[in-house]
Amino acid sequence: MMETESNLGMALVPVNGAAFHKSFSSPDADVILGAKDHTLFRIHSWTLKTTSGWFRSLFSMPQQSPPSNYPETINLDEDSHILESLLLMICGLPINPLTSYDEVDALLFAAEKYEMPGPVSLIRMLAMTPPLLDQPLRLYAAATRCGWEEETKRASAQSLALNIYAPEHQPILRKLHTSAALDLINLHRDRREGIRKRLNEQPFVTASTMASCPRCRWRIDHHAWRELKYRVVMEMDARPLGDTVVDVGLTEWPEAIACWDAKCPNTECTCVLYDKVETLRLIRDCIDSLPKST
After folding, report:
1. What pLDDT, in 10s, does the model give residues 94-104?
2. What is the bridge-based pairing of β-strands 31-34 and 73-75?
3. Dist CA 153 CA 209 (whole Å)
4. 103 class by beta-carbon count within 10 Å (0-12 exposed, 13-18 middle, 19+ buried)
5. Which sequence spans correspond to the domains of the chain?
6. 4-98, what's its fold?
7. CA distance 277 to 260
8. Which terminus of the chain is less hemmed in, N or C, by CB atoms within 10 Å?
9. Cα–Cα distance measured from residue 188 to residue 294, given in angstroms and rounded to the nearest whole number
10. How far apart are the first and last CA of the chain?
């Protein structure tokens, strides 16, 4: 037999004018599956019945008896790449690496349609490996749809590094179930509102605090602290993880520099109004205590 290559680079074997996948061309197999791009796969019915609820139900129905040397083809909706990946998984053969969530979603849809728990479990493990780990919203969408609790928490925690309200993330959010979308939005909102609430409480300067210098009692205005608080809250809204606040913002923002440089306006006092080291520690502790996942 001559081996040919399809337009996808898949090794095919011609048999009686039909193109069979090289790894699924055994004449001993009693079932032929056809991909929508016309690639054919020979596979044993026993394998399909023991790994797929859908095929188990199909083969339990009365069947016609096709010629033994060329069984009837069951045409499926999947393309050859997705069908190849699925069959490699259920046959215990080396599987194709997953490199994109478009492929993950297509495989999950097929595995769920054909009631194949084995491939679903393999996809679940592979979704937690590079290069898929850098797409937390896609992982969150897949995990919430499939009921994967650990992966859902991991993805929601990773999403805190994103501004989920940005236009580029809207298509993914629209695909989420309502409850999953609300859980994610609430996590991001709760972190922003949590830091806003705590910055307005003791031991931080609050609206009820007497506006006077702690040393000379000269009247002062806490506008520098108010502007820094506002910047912190806005940064937490755009990136709820808070790393840009504690690692960069509180030392480099103009609002932060103005706050740490603020002194009593009394020229005979010039007391520094805010303890930078202690304030940074307190803000870091506040961020660390916020909810971290859905």
Report:
1. 999 999 999 99
2. parallel
3. 39
4. middle
5. 4-98, 180-288
6. Potassium Channel Kv1.1; Chain A (3.30.710)
7. 10
8. N
9. 9
10. 56
What is the identity of the amino acid at 109?
F
* Residue owning tokens 């023991």: 50
- The SS3 call for residue 86 is helix
Beta bridge partners of 198: none
Q: Is the dihedral of CA 55, 60, 64, 65 positive or negative?
A: positive
User: Residue 247: what residue type?
Assistant: D
- Identify residue 130 by its one-letter amino acid code: P
Measure the CA–CA gap between 219 and 254, rounded to whole angstroms. 24
For residues 142 and 210, give the distance between their C-alpha atoms in angstroms, rounded to a whole number.
Answer: 52
Name residue 51's amino acid.
T
pTM of the model: 0.86
Q: For the chain, how long is the longest CA-to-CA vector?
A: 105
Q: What is the pLDDT of residues 187-205, one digit of tens each?
A: 999 999 999 999 999 999 8
d(CA 143, CA 153): 9
Q: What is the per-residue pLDDT across 132-165, written as a single tens digit (0 to 9) for each?
A: 989 999 999 999 999 999 999 999 999 999 999 9
- The full 3-state SS of 107-168, as one line of letters, equals HHHHHHHCCCHHHHHHHHHHCCCCCHHHCHHHHHHHHHHHCCHHHHHHHHHHHHHCCCCCHH
Length of the chain in terms of residues written: 294
Tracing tokens 């971290």 back to the chain, one arrives at: 292
